[in-house]
Please model this.
Amino acid sequence: MVAGGLVTHVVESSQRQARQDADVSLIALVGSAGTARSDGLTLTMEANLTLVNSGPVPVVVEQVTGDAGGLRFRSGRPTTVAPGVKSVPVTATVGCAPDLPAAPVEAVLTVRTADRKVRETSSLMIVQGTPWAFTHQQACQVMLIDPSTGEIRGYRHSSAG
Model:
């Protein structure tokens, strides 16, 4: 009877470990915005996504991508995300249109789990009101200067006529 109980325990423990090793529990949030360049039509910024791993084991995030409402972003190289929070660098491009997407933007994450299998998951992120949106607003606006006085009269978005 003891041997049967031990075998059952070992099998259940192995199954539990396999489930943990296959678990992906990631949330992506807009992080900081770094260096930004704009030609008045398009903004390119080096930025960060904040990834929250609420799973029981580390995962390797092979890639993070997103493409919605003119905003596109992509991570560089793979990074290990242990349970907890980690910033991941991305390059983001967006047109200097009046607004960034108002609806949540989907971040698609390609993840290698502890069982060495590649899985894809996604997370919705709010972009409005974040450092990315602030950088977009600042980098894409144009100063309106009074030609007779040289004083700043205001600002307009660079895509506005």
User: Anything to note?
Assistant: Residues 2-22 form the longest helix (21 residues). The helical segments are 2-22, 131-139. The first strand starts at residue 26 and ends at 38.
